[in-house]
Write a structure and sequence with these properties.
Length: about 625
């Protein structure tokens, strides 16, 4: 009984306390109301403002919690009757089309709120209940397409921002608009819902369309800095892991963010894309080569937006690669060789070679150019064996690209001639399958026993040597730089036994000699000395612009034949994924890196570990000079 009396006493005290507080609040409200009444009489414009605010507030109360700013409190802000009413709403195509038309043509803010609520329900469909029921899949698609297609125009119309203005101009005018404060929650609801959609939907067509429309509305994203980091995370992930169309659309959004925000988010964009590119390089497969080249070109384009900042990252990256190379040349350990002969290492060098080639003419990148040239030359000499032919060909291709873009001569003919001078004695079993040499960095042992290997050596070397000669075919010093390669090519032609390869080398020799004679004849007629650099640079410029010289035409034919050969070779390749899967299951032990063989066990031509006594290895020897 005493306890019950105590509880009653406490309740009475609390009730008395609350009633006193309520009286005080009511008195304060009455005072504030009197002040407002006096302001209305003194300032009629202020009275009109209050009426408009009251009307907008009533419209907001009748609708859902459109803003995602605090999702945890959306439902708490509405009464139980409103929640029950929301749960019974059924969204149909007719309703959605009506809202969209009213928002687009009549600039109805109430219809826009309803449309954004429906859009939010569609974006969160299957993950949480947001108070709407979607009639069918057709309505679901209609909500997404209608909102994504029209939201940008609707917002621009309400904010009176012309669509003809650039994104930079529009972003500056956005916050100056008198209606921005009123529309800001609606805009934030739209961009947050779209961001949620990017992280939930797996259909590439929907994601591509959403990315395209999001790019058009990027100025609204920039109004909310807290969402930009999340947007970048989504776009970079989709760029690195998706197909070509979605990857392109995602990269365009990332690039536009870097352009619009300037130095504010450029470092973030560049760091995230570089990390994603390197991470993708660790798992590159044969089918990903073309897509990796596309990703590389995207990163180069992004780096070119701010060359000085990208230059700093490039120097740090090349220095890191140089440390790995130095460690490998000093120790010759398998781990260092594995790191240098990995796609991560190769794609990193490839990226900065393309960056230098794209920007060296307009920017001072000469220090980076020399560092990269030394690194590539060292990599080619560290792994001279025939099994590393693909890596050496990539090194020669990089040096050719650097030389062509910079205008500096790089002596690489010796690297090419080393490839031509491999003589393979075919012993043991024949190679079973063709190999896509552009998709691997280290050749399998069985491939060295095949005629295909020697054909690949000759064709690749002639292509790269022709590219090197073509760069300098109009230079006044061409007869000098071609002298030693011609001697070596003559020796190779004499010892080559395969007639088709002999004809290919002989044609290269004839074309080079013909060009030497042409340049020598023109050089004999000049009166200036080698020290007069301007006159030296102007030598044969008229002939160079016409592109009618015999060696230029020969080089074009070499490139055309290379394209045809690669097409024929790719058609003859087996299903690489199936072959790899079967070989992997059959191996007793597989090396950690897919490009480095487990060399402590003999491996047969089909990739299966062989425990029988090892047969005599393929003999690879150099021709005597």
């Amino acid at each position: 009984m005493e306890s019950e009396d105590g509880k009653k006493l406490e309740d009475e005290i609390s009730i008395g306390t609350y009633s006193a507080q309520n009286k005080k609040i009511l008195s304060d409200l009455s005072i504030q109301k009197k002040k407002l009444d006096r302001l209305k009489k003194k300032d009629p414009e202020f009275s009109k403002f209050l009426e408009s605010f009251k009307t907008d507030a009533k419209a907001f109360q009748n609708e859902d919690a459109y803003s995602d700013e605090d999702e945890s409190s959306d439902q708490g802000e509405q009464g139980e009757d409103d929640l029950a009413k929301d749960k019974t709403k059924l969204l149909s195509n007719h309703v959605v089309n009506t809202w969209c038309q009213m928002a687009r043509e009549d600039h109805s803010q109430t219809a826009l709120i309803s449309l954004l609520n429906a859009y939010r329900a569609a974006c969160h469909y299957g993950t949480e209940s947001v108070g709407h029921m979607i009639e069918n899949s057709e309505t679901f698609c209609n909500i997404l397409l209608s909102t994504l297609s029209n939201a940008d125009d609707i917002f621009r119309g309400l904010l009176q921002i012309p669509s003809s203005h650039s994104k930079k101009e529009a972003s500056q005018e956005l916050k100056k608009s008198s209606k921005w404060k009123t529309l800001k929650p609606l805009v934030k609801s739209y961009v947050r819902s779209t961001l949620f959609l990017l992280n939930q939907v797996t259909d590439s067509d929907i994601l591509t369309f959403a990315m395209t429309r999001l790019r058009a509305s990027l100025i609204f994203f920039l109004a909310f800095p807290s969402l930009i980091q999340r947007l970048l995370k989504a776009t970079v992930h989709l760029w690195a892991t998706s197909g070509r169309e979605l990857s392109s659309a995602s990269f365009l959004v990332t690039r536009d963010i870097a352009v619009l925000t300037g130095s504010t988010y450029f470092d973030t964009c560049l760091s995230k894309t570089l990390l994603a590119f390197i991470a993708r390089s660790r798992v590159t497969e044969i089918t990903d080569i073309k897509h990796m080249q596309f990703l590389r070109d995207c990163v180069v384009e992004l780096c070119s937006l701010d060359v000085p900042k990208s230059y700093v990252k490039a120097v740090a990256s090349i220095n890191h690669c140089a440390k790995i190379l130095r460690w490998g040349m000093q120790t010759k350990k398998k781990e260092s060789i594995r790191m240098a002969c990995s796609w991560e290492y190769v794609n990193c060098i490839d990226l900065w070679v393309r960056f230098i080639s794209a920007n060296i003419r307009e920017n001072d990148l000469h220090s980076l150019f020399y560092m990269t040239t030394q690194l590539i030359t060292g990599l080619a000499h560290m792994l001279p064996g025939p099994r590393y032919l693909p890596l050496r060909l990539k090194s020669i291709e990089w040096l050719n690209a650097l030389s062509s873009s910079s205008g500096y001569f790089i002596p690489l003919s010796s690297l090419v001639l080393d490839i031509l001078e491999y003589k393979v004695v075919r012993e043991g079993r024949k190679a079973e399958n063709a190999v896509n040499i552009t998709s691997i960095l280290k050749l399998p042992k069985h491939y060295l026993k095949s005629k295909s290997f020697q054909d690949e050596c000759y064709h690749s070397a002639v292509e790269q040597l022709s590219s090197h000669f073509a760069q300098w075919s109009y230079h006044i010093s061409f007869p000098d730089l071609a002298t030693i390669p011609l001697i070596h090519l003559g020796r190779i032609h004499e010892v080559t036994t395969i007639e088709s390869l002999r004809r290919m080398v002989k044609r290269l020799i004839d074309q080079v000699e013909q060009n030497v004679a042409l340049v020598q004849k023109k050089r004999d007629d000049v009166s200036f000395s080698p020290h007069e650099h301007q006159l030296v640079d102007s030598f044969l410029q008229l002939e160079k612009s016409s592109l009618n010289a015999p060696f230029t035409q020969y080089y074009k034919s070499v490139l055309d034949k290379a394209v045809e050969r690669n097409l024929r070779k790719y058609r003859s390749l087996p299903d690489q994924k199936t072959t790899t899967r079967v070989a992997t299951k059959s191996r007793k032990r597989v090396a950690a890196d897919p490009h480095v063989d487990a060399e402590d066990q003999p491996v047969a031509a089909n990739g299966i570990t062989d425990n029988k006594p090892k047969k005599k290895a393929v003999k690879v020897q150099k021709l005597s000079a």
